[in-house]
Design goal:
The chain has 2 helices and 44 strands. It is globular.
């Protein structure tokens, strides 16, 4: 009897051993879970351990924290970092490199000291280094840190991400920059250079993104959302707004500074209220200048298209040596189409004296030279004291209403906007 029991036990053990060899390795690896981290230091410790998920794991911050200078995560992060709605005080960049599939979300960035303090690097991520096209997401991030890149540095200045160095698909949702960004290289409110090489391409989507900070570079290419695209870029902006002043030596745009290699760009329900300035330079040619939404399109890609729908520019445009345009300056303007877009010049602030410019459904060579009188419009839009006014009817019998809007969420001219008679 004892012999039979032993034989049965050994048979059972053997069967279990064989079953174990058939199970996937993942069954014995670190469990899939969200790992709570109490601080940036705790995150940098746990992300190096495979048991917690390593660089592809999912982490959630449980308290406000600080990122001291020199404590960036150096390795490429491909997991999820959820700030949990907390404030992260940064003295340097959080992530050196973000990889394909990563999600960074839900936090506010501040700087040590008072609000005038500036850091010397882009606060959230220095670069995106994607090994494939798995979507990278930045969501619900607000940057309040001022950024000043040291003169002569080759680094890019931005409120969220410095640059894209490889082919990548990136989504920005509800991202806000309130910091003033200054550099001597490409500069943007959300991202500076995307992509940064002519050999790379990027697909970028911006939804409900806002820049309120002043964006300044002493060289070329500055934009309220994107500073520059050196490589091929397909970009869409939906309900994006710029209220900050944008300035560059050449190619400054309220939303997008410059496109060099081409691609398809779409602007839908976008507003620029910031002043856009091209400072004095000796260089001329191409489409150097300042524009309300898109500073310059070089159109080196024969398939390039630019679509502007339901867009408004109320910012003053100044070009010391070259062109200005309420929406875009093109080398090949036939590539751009406009629908229900409105521009009000700086001198047209008074309700009764407005001469708004309506850009219609067809492309034309010099959109900044088109001017329609108020009598030709069913309604017109003007800006005064950070409010949007709408004027109904002909010039002979005007009625008006003021539109108060939340700059964080522009959805046309009727949704989430209250009208006062």
């Amino acid at each position: 009897m004892k012999t039979k029991i032993l034989k049965r036990a050994s048979t059972l053990l053997l069967a279990l051993a064989l079953l174990a060899t058939m199970l996937p390795i993942a069954a014995f690896s670190a469990p899939s879970r969200v790992v709570t981290v109490s601080s940036w230091e705790d995150f940098c410790t746990k992300v190096k351990r495979s048991w917690y998920g390593g660089l592809s794991g999912s982490y959630k911050l449980s308290a406000d924290t600080e990122v001291p200078e020199g404590s960036s995560l150096a390795d490429t992060f491909t997991g999820t970092f959820d700030g949990g709605g907390h404030t992260i005080t940064v003295a340097g960049t959080m992530f050196s490199k973000i990889g394909a599939g990563a999600t960074i979300k839900n936090f506010t960035v501040e700087t040590p000291g008072d609000s005038s303090t500036a850091i010397s690097s882009t606060p959230v991520a220095y670069s995106i280094n994607a090994s494939n096209t798995n979507t990278i997401t930045f969501q619900n991030i607000t940057n309040n840190a001022n950024v000043t890149i040291p003169s002569g540095s080759t680094a890019y200045g931005a409120g969220i991400v410095g640059k894209i160095t490889t082919n990548a698909t990136v989504v920005f949702e509800n991202c806000v920059n309130n910091g003033h960004i200054t550099s001597s290289n490409q500069t943007g409110g959300i991202i500076a250079n995307a992509p940064d090489s002519a050999g790379n391409s990027a697909t970028l989507t911006f939804t409900d993104c806002v820049n309120n900070g002043n964006i300044t570079t002493t060289k070329n290419y500055a934009g309220g959302i994107i500073g520059h695209s050196e490589g091929l870029a397909d970009v869409s902006f939906t309900r994006c707004t710029n209220t900050g002043n944008v300035q560059a030596a050449n190619n400054a745009g309220g939303i997008y500074g410059n496109i060099r290699a081409g691609g398809s760009t779409k602007f839908d329900y976008c507003i620029n209220m910031g002043n856009v300035t091209q400072t004095p330079v000796t260089t001329s040619g191409y489409c150097y200048g300042a524009a309300g939404l898109l500073g310059c399109v070089r159109d080196e890609d024969s398939a390039s298209t630019n679509t502007f729908t339901h867009c408004i520019n109320t910012g003053a445009l100044t070009a010391a040596t070259n062109l200005t345009g309420p929406f875009c300056i093109n080398e090949n303007s036939s590539k751009s189409t406009y629908s229900d877009c409105y521009y009000v010049s700086a001198s047209d602030e008074a309700i009764g004296g407005a001469s708004p410019i309506l850009v219609g459904n067809t492309a034309f060579a010099a959109e900044h030279d088109i001017e329609l009188t108020l009598a030709a419009l069913d309604f017109a839009i003007v800006c005064k004291d950070s409010q949007i006014y709408i004027i109904y009817g002909s010039s002979a019998a005007l009625t008006s209403a003021v539109l108060h809007f939340d700059a964080n969420y522009i959805n046309g001219l009727t949704n989430k906007i209250t009208i006062e008679e």
